[in-house]
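Notebook entry, structure prediction.
Reason for the run: the old model in the group folder had no record of what sequence produced it. Starting over properly, with the input documented here first.
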Amino acid sequence: MARTRIEIHSAGIKDLLRDPGVRRDLTARAENVLSAAKASAPVDTGEYRDSLHVIEDTTDRVSVRVGSNDPKGLIVEAKTGNLARALDAAG
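New structure, fully documented this time:
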C-alpha cells in the first residue's frame, strides 16, 4: 500500500486565514446566525434583540462572530442560550 505524504505550506495557510473569500463566507454564515438569533430572542424591552449584530475582526486571521452590546446580554444568554441555539439552527 502506498504511503501518502502531506506537506503543509505554512505561508499558504496563513494567506488562506486572511483571504477575502473566507471573510465573505464567514460573514454570510454569521448573518444566518444573526437572523436566527433575532427571530428567537426573548423580548421584554427589545433592547437585547436590537443589540445583536455581526462583529468582524482581523488579527492573524479573519474572525466573524455574532454578539450583543446590551449590558444585560450576558445574563440573557446565560438564562436562554439564545445565541447557542441560533448557531445550531443556522447549521
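Summary: The chain has five helices and two strands.
The old model has been moved to the deprecated folder.
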